[in-house]
Inverse folding.
RNA sequence: GGGGACGUAGCGUAGCCGGCUCAACGCAUCAGAUUGUCGAUCUGAGGAUCGCGGGUUCGAAUCCCGUCGUCCCCGCCA
């Protein structure tokens, strides 16, 4: 070992100890006589002193030190003088008086200061990611990520789970997201795909009798990026045999409880609430509601059928709905804010934003005159409005109405500061529809994925009214973020074939793409189900970061490139030729 | 595929919306000073032709067009 201690561990108890420290020069304070050097490593910072009176040659050597030089310092731990103790540092009561200095490596002037509060653009950070990752905050993020993974592995090990690796080079099954493709040299003209998730393999492991599987798995999707979406990401992937929803909820709640306790020292209340998809949509207009604030949607469709306000009565007559949000006593609601909110919902697709201001004598505002006194009273009562409150209305088709009000709800909560950041709102949303209709392709497709089981009592609608079939799927939502999803799977071959049929896959196509799964289902597949947690999102929330790029060591930019390595890159003629991909041929 | 914000010394920004102190500020860098600092301090110095290309103009960082890049959002993400 080049060192006896790290830069974060020495304190008064180590007084007079001979030590050797290694690390990077974080700061140099040259007083002409005394030179102070802060040495930084992963664990912290320790001050080293060079005194010309005790060792002139050594002091001379220290004058050459610059930022980010890598050094090894031999010395003795001294207590700091009265009044020079640095309370901000865990090592602040001591300093190391150097007796020997070895410069292990020099460094170019760092492109930016290695400090948590450094204000940097992301492209610069990614080109010099190794410098960016030297910042204590980034190291903390990666360390937390490691801890979360460790807790997960320990937890599932204790519960009898086996971690199994599934292939990265696998088969393209283009349903939903686009696959990343890898050409095969040995099989010219054929391609592997990188997995979008280990879904099919984990189901096959259940058929193999593995019983309880988990994996911290890399997944790949060739889709456009967002703050919470990278082309490669990590999920905690779980699958169990002989279980129902409840078992899986309990299992996931247990690991979440442990993670929050051991990282944030937060005691989560379990079990988490369960909300059906229908209820979530009706109350929040959204399948991943943030319940840290109220502002629930109020459905007024029934009440306003044939009402005096023609815009709404027409919407309802043509099959649309009218819903409202009550905003209790907003701080300010000048005309400009109303206009901004109106523009906002218009950009989502609404024609406009009707509103009431509730005054002492009842609702006021530009549209109030179109409603009868009775209608106004009913609305106010149903929305539970009081003087000073505002009610915002949206009338349109169901989808748009929910979408617009859900986003308006989020915006109002943010603007009004209604979000309690100290709260963690976990929620299960279940009973999603099994299918959704794809207008463009004129066919039903899976809402979740085609291996999701339906509720037994809804099976009667499978061929007549697929939109009515609810699935045994569930999402885990944390503070309005979709943290993970899962389902009880289909374990019967005939049922799986039926589902492929509903989504318009004929026998031949189903055989080509998923034959390996259906065949396996024919050999005694146990009832099984599972779940997957987005690790990047979970860790980002634990770290308090807005983007998952803050918790991924080497992320990609929005154009899906790596500024550090310049990947993806052009490959050589020779490589193309070997793969049989050279277009010139 | 679409909408928005941004792009000026190594880094972060001002100047741009009223074109003619063509370049300012902070940090960093370099030199000198400094026995106790800890985001050290003081003095001084060097460093950008304003993402790139084209246009308008006597004259452009500043206006126009195109293009490239970064970020946010919509679509997309079974």
């Amino acid at each position: 070992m080049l060192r006896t201690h790290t830069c974060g561990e020495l304190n008064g108890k180590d007084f007079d100890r001979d030590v050797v420290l290694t690390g990077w020069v974080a700061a140099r304070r040259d007083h002409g006589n005394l030179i102070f050097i802060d040495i930084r490593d992963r664990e912290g910072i320790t001050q080293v002193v060079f005194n010309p009176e005790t060792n002139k040659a050594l002091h001379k050597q220290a004058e050459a030190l610059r930022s980010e030089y890598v050094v090894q310092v031999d010395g003795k731990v001294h207590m700091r003088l009265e009044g020079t103790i640095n309370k901000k540092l865990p090592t602040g009561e001591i300093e190391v008086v150097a007796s020997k200095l070895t410069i292990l490596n020099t460094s170019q002037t760092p492109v930016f200061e290695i400090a948590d509060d450094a204000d940097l653009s992301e492209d610069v950070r990614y080109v010099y990611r190794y410098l960016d990752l030297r910042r204590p905050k980034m190291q903390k993020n990666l360390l937390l990520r490691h801890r979360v993974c460790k807790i997960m592995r320990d937890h599932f090990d204790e519960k009898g789970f086996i971690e199994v690796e599934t292939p990265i080079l696998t088969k393209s099954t283009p349903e939903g997201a686009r696959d990343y493709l890898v050409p095969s040299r040995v099989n010219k003209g054929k391609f592997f795909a990188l997995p979008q998730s280990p879904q099919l393999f984990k189901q096959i492991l259940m058929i193999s009798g593995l019983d309880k599987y988990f994996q911290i798995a890399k997944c790949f999707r060739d889709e456009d990026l967002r703050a919470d979406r990278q082309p490669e990401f990590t999920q905690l992937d779980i699958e169990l045999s002989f279980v129902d929803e409840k078992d899986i909820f309990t299992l996931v709640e247990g690991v979440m409880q442990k993670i929050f306790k051991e990282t944030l020292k937060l005691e989560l209340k379990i079990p988490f609430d369960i909300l059906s998809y229908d209820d979530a949509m009706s109350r929040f207009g959204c399948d991943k509601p943030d319940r840290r604030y109220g502002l629930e949607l109020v459905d007024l469709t029934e009440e306003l059928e044939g009402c005096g306000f023609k815009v709404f009565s027409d919407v309802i007559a043509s099959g649309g709905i009218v819903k409202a949000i009550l905003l209790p006593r907003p701080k300010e609601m000048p005309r400009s804010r109303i206009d901004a909110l109106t523009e906002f919902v218009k950009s989502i697709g609404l024609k406009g934003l009707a509103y009431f201001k509730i005054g002492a004598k009842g609702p006021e505002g530009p549209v109030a005159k179109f409603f009868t006194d009775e209608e106004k009273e009913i609305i106010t009562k149903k929305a539970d409005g009081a003087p000073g409150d505002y009610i915002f209305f949206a009338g349109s088709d169901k989808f748009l109405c929910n979408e617009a009000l859900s986003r308006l709800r989020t915006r109002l909560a943010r603007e009004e500061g209604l979000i309690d950041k100290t709260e963690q709102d976990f929620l299960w949303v279940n009973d999603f529809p099994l299918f959704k209709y794809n207008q463009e392709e004129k066919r039903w497709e899976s809402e979740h994925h085609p291996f999701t089981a339906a509720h037994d009592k809804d099976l009667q609608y499978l061929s007549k009214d697929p939109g009515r079939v609810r699935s045994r799927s569930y999402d885990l939502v944390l503070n309005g973020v979709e943290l993970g999803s899962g389902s009880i799977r289909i374990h019967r071959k005939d049922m799986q074939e039926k589902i492929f049929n509903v989504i318009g896959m004929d026998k031949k196509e189903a055989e080509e793409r998923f034959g390996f799964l259906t065949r396996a289902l024919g050999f005694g597949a146990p009832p099984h189900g599972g779940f997957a947690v987005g690790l990047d999102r979970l860790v980002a929330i634990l770290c308090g970061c807005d983007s998952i790029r803050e918790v991924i060591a080497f992320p990609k930019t929005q154009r899906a490139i790596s500024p550090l390595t310049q990947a993806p890159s052009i490959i050589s003629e020779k490589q193309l030729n070997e793969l049989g991909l050279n277009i010139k041929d």
Summary: The first helix of chain A runs from residue 56 to 62. Chain A has 15 helices and 22 strands. Residues 293-415 of chain A form a domain with the Gyrase A; domain 2 fold (CATH 3.30.1360.30).
